[in-house]
Amino acid sequence: MSDSADDGLVPGTDIPFESLPKVSLHDHLDGGLRPATIIELADEIGFELPATDADDLGDWFEESADSGSLPDYLATFDVTLGVMQTREGLTRVAREFVQDLAADGVVYGEVRWAPEQHLQRGLTLDEVVEAVQAGLEQGVDDVHAEGQTIRVGQLITAMRHAGRGLEIAELAVRHRDRGAVGFDIAGAELGFPPANQLAAFDYLAHHLFPTTVHAGEADGLDSIRGALFHGRALRLGHGVRLAEDVTIERQDDDNTYVSLGVLAQWVKDREIALELSPSSNLQTGAIAQWGDELVDHPFDLLYQLGFRVTVNPDNRLMSNTTISRELALLTETFAYDLDDLETFQLNAAAASFLPLEDREDLADAISDAFDEL
């Protein structure tokens, strides 16, 4: 990283990345725990950890997740899920999650998680959703007490391999007025297409409940097609492999000439947001066909072509990251400026699952804050 990025400042300014107002669309609750909290919760329930020092445990998560494989990356969640099986554990994790978002400058966040993974100690699906909502609300109160502003919502997620999609979709709709703002499917993408959850997506469409679908991360264009057709996705979780439908025809010293396939053109024309997570995409090998460094990530290509790109951490613990760090890495790699950083946040605000008027208010607040920098 450059000196400016190392200092946490937007290059050429004295503005910390953390001070920029941000919108977080792709951030997993079970991927954002504090290592110290994991240790305390594990001690309370007798759960064995790979390390009992907070720094060592944080290093273990990052090193284990940096595997080049999505299934191996997902294996690290056995630990975080292990300490998120009680009402008290879920509420504490959710509360701290909001506090940490606010510390990174997030003013609106959608928190995704899979309730079906938190039933090992006898809680029901509704009880775990209520426990998380209680923590989120406590976190919001904490942030407001510090004089900051934040708003959060739950993205209720079904695990695509587990076959409970309809049940989880019903759960999401049941809680739509109590914190749930959208639905997602996650987990092993390859071999578990959105079509497998068609009953869930039909139910959600019938009840006019918005969806975002993990697609174009561990699988390619067919997965994205399935997310759009079967899942009726309004956003693509990652979606980075949409770049497979972009053909570079020729390049010269000043320009790159490309053509878009039908799928890429559709996503662009309809401004379907891509929930890109650069560090995570490197760790899981999602961009392996283009390279193994951030400069190889098709983020900038998609941005320059006019796609609605957004910047997300995915899993802050596993990637040892925040949105501020992702913005710093992208800025250092692709020479972005404040206007670009504002565009990423406005893209995310427009793609959020807030009501239209609230999205417009959020965009205005972001623009006003950037104007004051």
Automatic annotation (TrEMBL):
Pfam families: A_deaminase. The keyword Hydrolase applies. Its EC number is 3.5.4.4. Coiled coil: none annotated. Keywords: Hydrolase, Metal-binding, Nucleotide metabolism, Zinc. GO terms for cellular component: cytosol. GO terms for biological process: adenosine catabolic process; hypoxanthine salvage; inosine biosynthetic process; nucleotide metabolic process. It is an enzyme of class 3 (hydrolase). SUPFAM superfamilies: Metallo-dependent hydrolases. InterPro entries: A_deaminase_dom (IPR001365), Ado/ade_deaminase (IPR006330), Metal_Hydrolase (IPR032466). One of its GO terms (molecular function) is adenosine deaminase activity. Its cofactor is Zn(2+). The keyword Zinc applies. It comes from the Bacteria. Belongs to the metallo-dependent hydrolases superfamily. Adenosine and AMP deaminases family. This is adenosine deaminase. It comes from Cnuibacter physcomitrellae.
